[in-house]
Specification:
The protein has 2 domains: 112 residues, Glutaredoxin (3-Layer(aba) Sandwich), CATH 3.40.30.160; 119 residues, no CATH class. 57% of the residues lie in helices and 9% in strands. By secondary structure, it is an alpha/beta fold. Strands 1-2-3-5-4 form a 5-stranded mixed β-sheet, sandwiched between helices. It has 12 helices and 5 strands.
């Protein structure tokens, strides 16, 4: 199976040479089987039919839930010729070899090309990684690929779509607030490098901040906020204007008050502390 990926690299290299006469689309179609839906094209190499069918069904379901949750339901993304692509590699080695990701990577996304890559056997992909990566793409398709947005906003938008992890992260945020060990919003907004974050704290706060905006103020407000970002307005000014916060400190205080009086602990999370 690995031979096919070596072949793919060689042929793609040839396709870039003038006069080679082979397009990238032709190479992909010759090496990968495809299954298409309204918003997605799944590329795979002999993956189990039931898994591919489940992947297509869940991807379409998440498309509906993500756009609905963010207030983007009336906007059209990825229709037919512009469909998002999901590459399903046969194993971790072939995925890592082609994508050049770190050894621990289970999935990756290219927001600008609407491409998500993973491999068969990645247990959390369909239920967790897929909606997360889709939300990254959809959010950026709406607001644009600007570099000045805080990392917590991007990751919060993606994190609130992970149905299986959201309750746990909100519980962690409650614990952080009640114990007074959360990261202040100004400092959190200055974090632009993943290597500088403590994942458990960063993702809990990011998810809870975006969930707070969506849960307390609703989708229409978030849509207004997104439109302001799309129109290139400063993210902090847009946040304060759309949600009527005087400053980031008032936003932080409202977030703390909202979660500080909640007790989101259930199941195996009961009694746990970070």
């Amino acid at each position: 199976m690995r031979t096919s990926f070596v072949l793919l690299a060689c042929v793609l290299g040839a396709a870039l040479v003038p006069g080679a006469g082979v397009s990238r689309a032709e190479v992909i179609s010759s090496l990968w089987q495809t299954q298409k839906s309204q918003h997605f094209i799944i590329y795979h190499q002999g993956a189990p039919a039931d898994y591919v069918t489940r992947l297509v069904d869940q991807a379409e379901r998440y498309y509906e839930s993500v756009t609905d949750r963010l207030g983007y339901r009336s906007f059209s993304f990825w229709s037919w010729d512009d469909r998002a692509k999901i590459f399903l590699y046969p194993d971790s080695a072939s995925y890592l070899g082609d994508t050049r990701r770190a050894a621990w990577s289970g999935a990756s996304v290219n927001v600008k090309t609407r491409t998500i890559s993973t491999f068969i056997g990645q247990e959390t992909f369909i239920d967790s990684m897929l909606p997360h990566e889709m939300a990254h793409i959809i959010f950026r398709e709406f607001v644009g690929h600007r570099k000045d947005l805080p990392l917590w906003l991007d990751e919060g938008v993606a994190g609130v779509q992970e149905e299986g992890k959201l309750a746990e992260r909100l519980t962690q945020a409650v614990n952080l607030i009640k114990r007074g060990v959360y990261i202040g919003l100004k400092d959190l907004s200055d974090i632009r490098d993943y290597s500088l974050v403590v994942p458990q704290v960063f993702y809990a706060e990011s998810c809870s901040l975006v969930n707070f905006l969506l849960e307390k103020y609703g989708r229409e407000k978030f849509l207004d906020f997104s439109r302001a970002l799309r129109d290139k307005a400063d993210w902090q000014d847009s946040l304060e204007r759309c949600y009527q916060f005087r400053n980031l400190g008032e936003f932080e205080s409202a977030w703390k008050e909202y979660y500080g009086r909640q007790n989101r602990v259930s199941g195996d999370d009961a009694g746990k502390e970070l």
